[in-house]
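thought: fold this chain, then report.
action: predict
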Amino acid sequence: MIDAYQSQCQARVDDALAALFAAPLPQLQRLYQAMRYSVINGGKRVRPLLVYAACEALGGNASRANAAACAVELIHAYSLVHDDLPAMDDDDLRRGQPTTHIAFDEACAILAGDGLQTLAFEVLADARHNPLDAEVRLRMLSCLTRAAGPAGMVGGQAIDLGSVGCKLDQAALELMHRHKTGALIEASVTLGALASGLADEPALQALQRYAQAIGLAFQVQDDILDVESDTATLGKTQGKDSANHKPTYPALLGLPAAKSYALELRDQAIAALSPLGESAEPLRALARFIVARNS
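observation:
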């Protein structure tokens, strides 16, 4: 089921994303090329899938969630462009291709990331892209700004950079990853629910419990793959976390315990969806996929 659903949602969001990268001036061609390169270059589109699946879990039409799906992918892409820069993780490979600062140059990559970030908020705010009620658009903007900013993803990256070479306990490691990885995953689910137009408080709480569990499971699985996978499969440099002395779940818990923890989190996520019935099956399938993936 997940393969067909993933292909359908990927095609939907990729079509919507591709329409965003037409340069308004000839002088901006290179910037827009770098932005497009950073987004339309493969990827599993997990966050847009979560947007669509959450919208549909509450009975909404997926077409209402296109802007939200684009916005979370644009924020995710910007974060990868900036994370890969020499001043941060200094990576030269992403999704099996040269990172943006290698394919273009460092200054262009910084500007491309800046452009992707602000474009995400434009897509959510502008009724031409997101034809929902103004009140809903405002709630969406508030959700995404918090998730992407210093109280969320940016803060998590700051904690991550400050933790290199340090030994963190499990609570500190989870705090870092609930910000760095989990915040945008939680926002993806919430934005999808808001896009449905049918989100009541009990449903939002159930989806939040799901998203908190699966957001952490995503990072645990990433840490496991950094140990077990290879560069060709991952599309990025394998073993980089260990080489950079970054705190990870396998390093803290051991590989078998990290794998058990990922499965435990998956089961927590699935259990959280019990009030939503069969309509939440795509979300359950995504929880299984996130923990079973090999890249």
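thought: worth noting. The chain has one domain: 2-292.
final: tokens above.
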